[in-house]
Design goal:
six-stranded antiparallel sheet; 128 residues
Length: 128
Amino acid sequence: MDDSRINNPLPTGAFLSIHYQDRPRDFHTWRVYYEDGRVDIFDGKAWWQPRRLTADQVAQVKQALGDCGLLTASDLSGEGIHDAATITWHWRLEDRRGKLVNAAYPAKTHPVMECAMELLLNLEDQAE
């Protein structure tokens, strides 16, 4: 698929990209959060843009990512886990960039991802 949101882990203007990859089933989803409030979602078949976060909501997301421990979190290995999917978060906050991987999903959930995802989904529900 020729799409910058897929071919570039963190597209221009984005501060967070979440990629779910189930290799055995060849199934992928993405969520891409942009500085301007756009949220692009790929549901495995098509991209859509359900809502737009306000500037205050973008600031809340960034604060929550730091508060949840994203900047210092360690990856979770999928070693010894049968039929695991991988969730990868690429992020850019201020002058720092990084990547966080949970290679053992759903057998193991990552506490940082769970902490931040709850807020992300709540804010998406409230967005315009």
